[in-house]
Structure formats: structure tokens, C-alpha cells
Amino acid sequence: MSAKIELVLTCIRLGSRNTNLYRFERPEGGSLPPVAPGAHISLHLPGGMERQYSLLHAGENLKAYDIAVKREEDSRGGSRWIHDRLRVGMRLQVSPPRNHFPLDEGAAFSLLIAGGIGITPIYAMAHRLRDLGRPFELHYTVRSRSDAILLDELSQWENVTIRIGEESAGAPFALARIVGDAPADAHIYCCGPNGMLEAFEEAGRASSRSADHMHVEYFEARFEAATDHQFTIELARSQTELVVPAGKTILEVLRDAGIFVSYSCSEGVCGACETTVISGIPDHRDSILSEEERQANATMMVCCSGAKSDKLVLDL
Ligand code: FES
């Protein structure tokens, strides 16, 4: 696991009625680890909370990380703490950028689709494609103007279509048509609420898109953790066998046994706990692995996935 870095919050700006933009820098100044478009960082908050946020800007030599945090009233507490308690000058431990939503910069055409706060990684991608002079279109849908972030800037771009839901006279966001109309060799990216992402994946299948040209980033857990029955895990490196009882995840059993494993979100969306599977058949419940990767059963997210076989042998 990459070492955490301590960053100081240097600026808070209002992004929309319920979203703030936060800027973090090194306390002593200087460059931060490089960021690829689509990457996120993990903030380590009080009480053991960790939350992942996509970075608004990518680059090799950034002096600041910018994120957007929407206040979620039904959240597990992370966004509320950030909005209510985090203030300029406070320091946080931050895990360096990770990226499960990489941009294919060589694509002949890129179609970017964002719903609500899902604009954050998409915005970084759009900037990168503009800088490279690559052809792309961006479709950004939000419920209302007061919910939208980055609206002033994006509305100036000629290849950006912004749909404001409450100004659309009830017409739904034409996701299937937008995906269907894209060039056959386009790489298509979508980030937004789970329902939108599922519709996006369905639109890709309906228009016979190659799965490796369809890219999604889930912010929320897509499936329940697999905790409905007992199975055994064998840890090949430490030559240990453990029982995972019904009601517990592999990660919980590993932590109870004092075995170190990297993790962050604990709900299958960040990829921090990805573990190599030596044998056995996982019951994949994460929101990261592609269908092909699930079929291959070479790795699994131990925070949420379980076992279809009686035993899993893991490279731990
Ligand atoms: S800890 Fe985030 S995917 Fe497992």
C-alpha cells in the first residue's frame, strides 16, 4: 500500500447548493504525486472513516488536489463531517491517487457522460482531452441548476451538452440514444448514480459495444456483501486457514485475525483490497472488476466478495 501523505486544507469554495470544492496542498508546499484523469484519493477522517473522492485536475506536477464533496444527508457520516467540521488549515492523512477509471488518450473519439456529482472524474478527463486536442463530447445531466457544479465553465465549451432535469419538461435524459449514436470505435465513459450506470451498461449491450470501450465508475456499492454462508480461506503465504462465518466478510475475518490487508472503502468501490486468488471460485460483489475479470477469477475484493466454492486460496 502506498504511504499516506499529510495534506492541509487551503481553500473551500461553494460548488453548488449542497456541494463544496476543497483544495489540499502539502503543508510545506511542493509537488504532489501525479494524477491521471479519472483518479481518486482517499481521505482518512476521524473515527476511522475513509472516503474516496475523484480529483478534478490531473497532471504530473500538481501543487494541489481539488475535490468536490456533495453533502449526503443519508450518508455514513463522511460527507457530513467534511461539510460541518473540516476547516481551512486542518490537516488530513490522504492516500495517494488510485485509478480504476483510466482514460484511453489515444481513442479516435471519446464520449463522456456524467450525472450529478459524477462530473468530477469526467471533468478531469475532459480537460485532459482538450489539452491533447483529442475529439470528444461531454453530456452532463443534473437535477437543477442549483445542484450543478462547474456549470459556468462547462457551459462555455462548444462540445458540452448540459441537461437540467427540472428545465426539461419531463423529457428523460436520452442515455441510450447518446450511447447508440456514438461512433462505433468510441470509448465511452460514464459516472453518476448507480441507476444511471446500470442503464449505461445496458445501452452499451443494446448497441453491441465492445465491453472494453465502455467505462464506468461507481461511487456507491452496487451489490450487498456476500455474507450469507460459511466458507474457508487458506492464506498461501502465511500458511493459515481461517473460517469465514455467515454474517462476516473476508476482510473482517482477516482483521480479527490480525492479518494485514490493505483496504479503504469496505464496499467494493475503491479497489484497495484487491487480492490475488490462487484457487477457488469467488462470489464477486464489487463494482470494479469487468465481466471478463470476474470470469477469470484471478483477483477479488475481499471487503465484499465471498466464495462460491467451499474454499478459497488467497495470495496473502
Ligand atoms: S476496500 Fe474498497 S474495494 Fe475493498
From TrEMBL:
SUPFAM superfamilies in UniProt: 2Fe-2S ferredoxin-like (SSF54292), Ferredoxin reductase-like, C-terminal NADP-linked domain (SSF52343), Riboflavin synthase domain-like (SSF63380)
Keyword Cytoplasm: no
NAD listed as a keyword: no
Coiled coil: none
Entry's EC annotation: 1.-.-.-
Enzyme class: oxidoreductase
Cofactor: FMN
Record Pfam families: DmmA-like_N, Fer2
Keywords, sorted A to Z: 2Fe-2S, Dioxygenase, Flavoprotein, FMN, Iron, Iron-sulfur, Metal-binding, Oxidoreductase
GO molecular function: 2 iron, 2 sulfur cluster binding; dioxygenase activity; metal ion binding
Top-level lineage group: Bacteria
Name of protein: Phenoxybenzoate dioxygenase subunit beta
Gene it is expressed from: pobB_1
